[in-house]
Amino acid sequence: MRMDTALRRRHLRVAAACGMFVAAMVGMAYAAVPLYSWFCRTTGFAGTPLVVKAAPQQVLERRITVRFDANITGGLPWRFTPEQNSISVRLGEVATVLFTATNEAARNTAGQASYNVSPSTVGQYFSKINCFCFTEQRLKPGERREMPVVFFVDPALAKDGDEEDLDTITLSYTMYPVRGPTAAVADGAARP
């Protein structure tokens, strides 16, 4: 009988350890996305531009062409475009560009953008001061909105020997639908 009690305790400990392991793995799965996002924003990993509060003190003569790309995933009835396809900026120079979103549906819709930079090795040098990304945008039927992006390419790029031949960076945004209750609208009046 003593053997059965010891064996039962051992099985319970193994079962508890397995249960804690499964709970920890589920918790890590939920935490993985925000932790990865934080890591990318902090380090510029995977072409994620850094978000900063102030412009650099130095502007260099070296110029980089920054191209702009705008995409929409399925289910979002918007037109989403950059107001210009590219600009030439000096390293350290603060630039502002506008993206335009237009709701082409006969109802209120919402979208949210994510972004990346290519080549992915320059994410650590591409810094945004202001951006509409990760902010929910709600548009009424036919509404058009201009959304600014304020950025600079860090002068530290000039010291990176691996990037000395770099002359073009692409900033790409993808707009995703935000699911939630939306009111159908016709003739400018919301329906119950």
CATH topology of the largest domain: Ctag/Cox11 (Pfam 04442)
What percent of residues adopt helix (DSSP H or I)? 10-25%
Q: What is the annotated CATH architecture of the largest domain?
A: Sandwich
- CA radius of gyration: 24 Å
Q: Termini distance?
A: 70 Å
Order of SSEs: HEEEEEEEEEEEE
CATH homologous group name of the largest domain: Ctag/Cox11
The first-level CATH class of the largest domain is given as Mainly Beta
β content, as a range? 35-45%
Shape from CA axes?
flat
Number of strands: 12
- Distinct helical segment count: 1
Give me the secondary-structure topology.
Elements: H1 2-43, E1 50-51, E2 63-72, E3 78-82, E4 86-90, E5 95-103, E6 109-118, E7 126-130, E8 137-139, E9 144-153, E10 168-177, E11 185-186, E12 189-190
Parallel strand pairs: 1-7, 2-10
Antiparallel strand pairs: 2-4, 3-5, 5-9, 6-8, 6-10, 7-9, 11-12
Write structural notes for this entry.
With about 190 residues, this protein is α+β, with helices and mostly antiparallel strands. Mean pLDDT is about 80; it is low at about 180-190. It has one helix spanning about 1-45, and strands spanning about 50, 65-70, 80, 85-90, 95-105, 110-120, 125-130, 135-140, 145-155, 170-175, 185, 190. The radius of gyration is 24 Å and the shape is flat. It has a five-stranded mixed β-sheet. It has a five-stranded mixed β-sheet with strand order 4-2-10-6-8, with no helix packed on it. The chain contains one helix and twelve strands. The protein folds into two domains: about 1-45; about 45-175, Ctag/Cox11 (Pfam 04442), CATH 2.60.370.
